[in-house]
Amino acid sequence: MSSRLLTVSTSPHLLGRATIRSRHLETMLALLPAVGFGVYYFGGPGLMVILLATASAVAAEYLAQRLTKQPVTVGDLHAALMGLLMGLVLPAGAPWWLPVVGGALAVVVGKLFFGGMGGYPMNPVLVAWVALALSWPEQMNAFYQPLSSEWYVSETPLMMLKDDPSTLEVVTRSELWWGLVPGAIGATATWPLVLGGLYLVIRRIVPWQIPLGVLLGAAGMALLAAYTDPTLGELGYETFAQQWSIVTFHLGAGGLMIAAFFLAPEPVTSPVTPWGMFLFGLGVGFMTVIVRTWGAPVDGAFYGVLVMNAATPLLDRIRPKVLGKIEGTA
Amino acid sequence: MSILSLFKGVRLPRSPEPPPPRPLSPPDKVIIPLRQHQGRVCEPVVEPGQEVLLGQVVGASEEFEAAAVHATVSGKVEAIAETYDPAGQRVPAVVIANDGRDAWVEAEGAPPTLSEVEVVQKTRPTRLLKRLREAGLVRSGLLGLPLHVDLSPPMAPRAYMFMTGIPVVRPIDTLIVKAVDHDPPVVTNQAALAEAGEELALGIAALARIAGARRVVIVLPAGVEPPGVAQLAARHEWETTHLDGRHFPYAVDNLLVKKLTGRVVPTPYGEPRDVGVVVEPLVTALDVGRVLSQGRPPVDRLFTVAGDVAQPQVFRVRMGTPIARVIEAAGGLPVEPGKVILGGPMMGYAHFDLDTPVTKETDGVVVQSAESVRTFQDQPCIHCGRCVAACPVGLVPTELGKLCEYGQFEDAAERDLLHCIECGCCAYVCPAQRPMVHLLRFGKSEVLARRMEQ
Description:
The complex is a heterodimer of chains A (about 325) and B (about 450).
Chain A: H1 20-67, H2 78-88, H3 97-111, H4 124-135, H5 137-140, H6 157-163, H7 167-170, H8 173-178, H9 190-202, H10 209-228, H11 230-233, H12 240-252, H13 256-263, H14 274-294, H15 301-315
Chain B: E1 10-11, E2 22-23, E3 29-33, E4 43-44, E5 51-52, E6 57-60, E7 69-70, E8 75-84, E9 90-98, H1 117-120, H2 125-134, H3 147-151, H4 159-162, E10 174-178, H5 188-192, H6 198-211, E11 215-221, H7 227-236, E12 239-243, E13 247-248, H8 253-261, E14 277-281, H9 282-294, E15 300-307, E16 313-318, H10 323-329, E17 337-342, E18 349-351, E19 364-369, H11 386-390, H12 397-405, H13 409-414, H14 425-429, H15 436-453
Parallel strand pairs in B: 2-16, 10-11, 10-14, 11-12, 15-19
Antiparallel strand pairs in B: 1-13, 3-9, 4-6, 5-8, 6-7, 8-9, 15-16, 17-18, 17-19
Helix pairs in contact in B: 2-6, 6-9, 12-15
């Protein structure tokens, strides 16, 4: 008995089953419905963009870490998840090199430059997305009309909204929420994103405060816009049901839902405290609708996430109340 | 208690119900540590070679914060040696070889035994307390205080109370008897329900009388309704309530008090008695009843063996039995042993020496095979916030862990490091498997060491 050595360590001696890898794997599983819809809607081009972005992100992480003699962390699936998200926020009509550059940028500039997992200040996928959107606006707006026999570039509902508020009445909500309008591969269909997002919330991989904050913030801001914006006033909306239709438009359009459930709750760049998370989400929601209604860019969801990422250290200062702490003592 | 607390803490995995307790024969040799409580070490009052009888005092102390220790077998003192206490610290111990006679020491001038609740309720509290002190009772559970210390009012009001507006002397009005275990699968208190009877009633009545508590609450594990306890409670107008012990750590004292009475125990230095509550485990209440009705110090205790053994069991063992023997009786260590943990899997201490004895503090032991041992990883924090959501006292463990890792101890202390109860929920939920409790304990010890220097 004495010859067998026993392990000694601090408590706890039980650990939960969650690991970094399992989180990323489950997030990818939750994205599967969105990927399925994207591939169904956009066919070969859509699938190609997703695959190229994922492959590029994984390859970039492997090469960069080998080159800098760091431990290779491809196995934790973070690069694969980032590449998948990158592909989903790109348009199906993007040339082949756009997802390749995007995936590599996300991993190398967005993540590894800042010290890898746990170190980066802003969502690396969106950092890469902004870089692409500013550098190649034409290619980044090559949105295809889904389910068409011949692919052609078309305007998204949000682009049309910029010029003409009556878009709110032209696009039916069921088209919008099922993604039968031009848009990014994975972001245009809203229902599959909601499905995957709810799974993550139930699994507690995504804290419920962030998506709730985003949705409430966007809804609140959309209502505010309905009351105050003169161009929307021309539509003559009087009843609450009519004004609510603006809310359902904003929630279903563009990248809001993928931001709410997948990009904003990115763990490293979002706050950790309950109220901080909620305010972070509210901020993302506000920014989205502000940019869409009054700003120059077409969609504000991704910019909103990046701006609120910068506010994360501030929001982390909103701490929960410590049980049993008496004020004025340490 | 708010609904939000349902989402805090962790739900521990379900473990099989152990069969009812069974006695384990006394060992050939007992190792009796001279400190089996949180407090001062006792002086040995026997010498090697001396014959001792069952229940004879072998270690005593003049200090208030010490509980006397008694021989738990009759036989010859072999040596005064060193062993480990449940927390892994070295402690002197009396080693006694068992002669198998189990001859009790003659009690001289012992007070008459008490066997009726009504009598106990009329006895002066100081008399009762004196008997408990002579029997060397200790509150069962890791880092348990001697029972007479636990039940006595503090010698002087503590400094922190002056600045806080808490009434300095708050009379105790509530006694909580815990039949639910905070760290399953060590379920010693739950198993002790099988022995509930008149002695338990006597013990609870004595504890309530000493503390001065009018209200007595017996906390039963969820889904367990022993008829004996219900009868006792009905007869003596005690309340019973239920609590799910798997919802860790809500059976730990401070959180239990908050849940049952709504009162918040001041931390880091406060105790439940500061808000007028005394919490005692059921095993301790049973021991009090035995001491009063039999007039003898306890020589055995209930002890759970759980985890990767052939037959998880609750035994009634002599104190001082090496844990190796108890584990052997439960089927022995697995082929590839990993960890032997005194206490429970979440808050217990891993041991390497299987000669460590069963003491008044230890509720049980958990055995893990090599393959079920989980190791921490040296990965960076990914800032996911799971620990913040899980922390039952509302800390931000992720930040504290990082501050302690990089030596920013005073910053950590400003962010309420000392309020941590070391329950381990943060480490349990951490996807990066960071050694959270290790980091926070390290930080705490550094902060306290620096404050001592000043």
